[in-house]
Design goal:
Layout: H1 2-41, H2 45-59, H3 62-74, H4 80-93, H5 96-107, H6 111-127, H7 130-157, H8 173-190, H9 193-205, H10 211-232, H11 238-264, H12 266-276, H13 278-297, H14 301-311, H15 332-357, H16 365-387, H17 395-418, H18 422-429, H19 434-450, H20 457-484, H21 489-520
Helix pairs in contact: 1-2, 1-3, 1-7, 2-3, 2-4, 3-4, 3-15, 4-11, 4-13, 4-14, 5-9, 5-13, 6-7, 7-9, 8-9, 8-10, 9-10, 10-11, 10-13, 11-13, 11-14, 12-13, 15-16, 15-17, 15-19, 15-21, 16-17, 17-21, 18-21, 19-20, 20-21
Length: 531
Amino acid sequence: MTGDIYLVLGGIGMFLFGMKIMTEALREASGRRLRTLLARFTRTPLSGVATGTVATAAVQSSSATTVMTVGFVGAGLLSLPQSLGILYGANIGTTATGWMVTLLGFKLQLGTVALPALFAASLAALLTSGRNARIGRVAAGLCLLFIGLDLMQEGAARFGDTMTPQTLPGEGIRAQAQLLAIGLAMTLVMQSSSAALAVVLVFLGSGAIAFAQAAAMVIGMNLGTTFTAMLATLGGSRTMRQTAVANLMFNAGTAVVAFPLLGMSAPIFAQVAAGAGAQTALVTFHTTFNVVGALIFLPFTAGFGRLVQRLIPERRPGDPAEALDPALLSDESAAMDALHAVLSGLASEVFGALGRAISRTPDMRALAAIDGRVKPALERAASYAARIQIVPDHVQARERHAALLHQADHMTRMLRRMERRGTIAVLLDDPGVSRAARLFGATLARAAAQEQPAAQASRLAWLSGYVRRQAHQHRRATLLREHVGTISVQNMFERTDAMRWLHRTVDHAERIAHYDGVAGHPPPSANPRDD
């Protein structure tokens, strides 16, 4: 008996490890394409359901899809209602694992074939690199998954009379609640609803549990996976917490729907079980109640989104670096989405403050608030950027990451220059450069109003050249005026120093706007200037 338990536990462990390897490799291989799919085709909650289903089925992980989605919402690429559609679809897509286990693992019994295949896949994963290595890891994970299933089946088959449907709670609301709690607990312990579902499918196939008992446990597993997400979001960003709460509420609502659906559709599932087997009937039920739940929630998505926003309101005053959620670091692109959104927002604040200070009616009050608000957020952004791990062969991701680092660096240097506020008064009082300074201030103010520094990148690039030429002419004129005695030596130094300050500050602003564009819309082969 002890050996049989060890077989089941070893099979579960192998299944979990295989799922982890396969999911990570699939995410690396298809993550960028799926991100494009989610961003391009998610326009409504309904299209979000479709893209969420496809993305989750492709990477075999609803968590990966959720992290991508949170990154998009935090970056302002998707609204909360659109992201809720993806959430509905992720719950449907995650049922693909059950179908894969049933059709390939149980029907075709690939466990024996998986042993030699695991050897070949491991060699490919260890001895090759890039795409071939990822294919090897996907195949190795799949082989481990099927071998784990075989071990679980072998152990479960030997339980005999030790575990039967009579040993578990039977019929009635109380029994169903107990079975739901068992399924929920299994998911929390294994940290994977897919592995918990595989265990139930194995014991269902061995006759240790009945279909109705297995169905109630699957409902609990569907609910249990949301508690894992809730724990992961403690202390996280508002967007992440909203997503976790929405997921919990959606799965709780789906669970409420699932029990009546099981009762009303019992004859249909009985026919499926008689024809295709109880395991096929169970995964059919799993998919069905998730689809029905999505269809019920879809018409009320906008109101559902408003309810979630009221439950998890925005903190006041807003933290400019709140979107930098550590949970997003598991996906390099989602982490860079959040980082870009934060840096772009900080740049808009800095541009707006300096733009108001260099204007026809100078307002220095915004500059005073920069130190206590922007500097700490920028330090957090720089620390967050250093924690982002880029897959070696993701060239475009490395270029985007470099652009974000350059943007943060230029913003830090620009903030240091902005500490010399007395220089601004010298610029505005000098007739030779006040026009260029006010032109710079107006451009910064326009970029801040658009909340998109990259929108003024070309204007700032032109202005950088214009100020460079003006600085050369102004220096010669100022030196000549001091030579003939119309200004003092001290005034000469103040004016030339102010012009040099303007020249370098414009260059920093131009670089910030340039890298904001590269990080927001990275071209296939970006080659940003490093200065």
